[in-house]
Amino acid sequence: MSxxxxxxxxxxxxxxxxxxxxxxxxxxxxxxxxxxxxxxxRDHEAVLAFRTLLLGMSDEISTGRVTLHDRRAYREQNPAPxxxxxxxxxxxxxxxxxxxxxxxxxxxxxKANTPSMIADGAPEAPVVLMAIGFTFDGLLKLTPGAAxxxxxxxxxxxxxxxxxxxxxxxxxxxxxxxxxxxxxxxxFLIVLASTDRGPIKQREKQLLKDLKTCGVEIxxxxxxxxxxxxxxxxxxxxxxxxxxxxxxxxxxxxGDDFITPRHLAPDLFPQAHLFGYPGQDLVWPGELVLGHANxxxxxxxxxxxxxxxxxxxxxxxxxxxxxxxxxxxxxxRTMEDAARRMKQREGFEHLTADRLASLIVGRWPSGAPVxxxxxxxxxxxxxxxxxxxxFRFDSDAAAxxxxxxxxxxxxxxxxxxxGAVCPWSAHIRKVNTRDSASDTGGRDSTYKRRLLRVGIPFxxxxxxxxxxxxxxxxxxxxxxxxxxIQASIEEQFEFLVTRWMGDPSRPKSPAGHDIFVGQNDAPGxxxxxxxxxxxxxxxxxxxxxxxxxIVPTGGAYLLVPSITAIRRVLSGG
Length: 573
Ligand code: HEM
Fold this sequence. Notes:
- By secondary structure, the chain is of the alpha+beta class.
- It has twelve helices and 17 strands.
- A hairpin with a 5-residue loop joins strand 2 and strand 3.
- The termini are far apart.
- The relative contact order is 0.18.
- The structure holds protoporphyrin IX containing FE.
- Protoporphyrin IX containing FE is lined by residues 92-93, 234, 236, 238, 240-243, 324, 326, 361, 363, 427-428, 431-432, 451, 479-480, 482, 493, 496-497, 517, 550.
């Protein structure tokens, strides 16, 4: 007879081939400084020389194992009062908060990518993490076998899909700085990431020399850095990188060696095996890496892996790069104007620009979810990584029992199925429906759409946030180097942009567009976007604007191949 008091049996999670998967994909780079370098293989000679260089570089590309080691070392060196600090090192699209590095400073910055040994026998993580991704055109130059890749989005490339994504007017790909219709073709993108800028510069110097010797044309180079004035916050001022999917899987056959740390107490909470941090869904690795088990309708049971064609794509991932310019001044001017007009209406008397902006994000600037604190920001909640991602949309949430006895003391979210508290158009609700059903199915439908955000802001922050454009030294050249990892560009990135962010009636009505980030596919340059905001009761206003405060200015669809594919298929190995 089985004992009904025993804890639920956890799912058996696979040991992932972390020596073969690039670290930018699993667990994702976690560094406050990055440099992106884009190259074009000019001619046949350049291709041959580059293949040889790539073979040498393959030892330096950061594997999942090296990157995980680096992540764990960071956590050890930056202990926080409570385990919550661990989450501060989760990857994000505005980059991590730079850590106060303690203890030993890593040595050998210039050739840092070859792990050396440290006292405990574990390989010391490199100072500079490196990743490489290829466009379809780039892959075809290196191997004719790339012609068998079935993804239509990848084959066509980002610029060809731009109209479908809603890029028009100032965001038209004829105006892009990189990867556009009038810029030189991009064959590959290298990402260098580090805790300090110095080591990146040193590594980059040698790399650029090597690439030029091969006859590679450098068509793009850009630095991304976390904001020094507001670490972890994107340029409009909101904390970013809070909610990321956790990947299921272990780094070794040791039972507890999970890639994504687990914080819930399974003996006290039957659903503990669904989450890493509270609110952090665990997805099966096939959602992020090709050739692995997918998430099935029952999140505890792995679904079959999708077939991988050609076979060498196994352990690779797709990387979406989107250079998104943010017009900080326009954003806040629009929020101020709209709030001033809206507060004339009954039910909206207390609306401020900050509150309105927080409603269209779904979180307050500190990161505190509006579902937990609907009336005002709560900085302590925003900072608290064990609480700031724990909330539900469709039903009431309760405090979860955590390992170590942590107590979540903040107000709990209450059921908000209509979007009266957090509008259905809010950015975070458009891209992750959490416990809500959607136009594509039940609660599980969101799992298939998750992506890992590993981007970082570019350009110095604008201070004050509403400075007139004439006083902006960068003339608006700031924004987000959006980078996302997924197993399917069509089913994850493009689905989110076109079907949920850009469609006013999905995932659920009344919603409107994701007015915070989304473009839309209405024809014409001066097109309106709208979203429904509720007042104190159920009063509704449809907020409309044609202001484009986020303008796509470049990007690419890339494949981040496995180390084996780089060595055996793409390089001279
Ligand atoms: C400049 C453009 C963007 C800005 C400023 C921005 C900002 C934010 C902020 C402030 C959050 C909430 C904090 C967090 O949970 O990390 C967030 C969450 C998120 N964003 Fe964006 N974002 C941008 C573009 C995009 C794009 C293009 C996509 C995907 C197509 C995207 C996907 C997501 C996802 C998946 C989340 C997590 C939602 C959740 O799980 O709750 N973002 N973003």
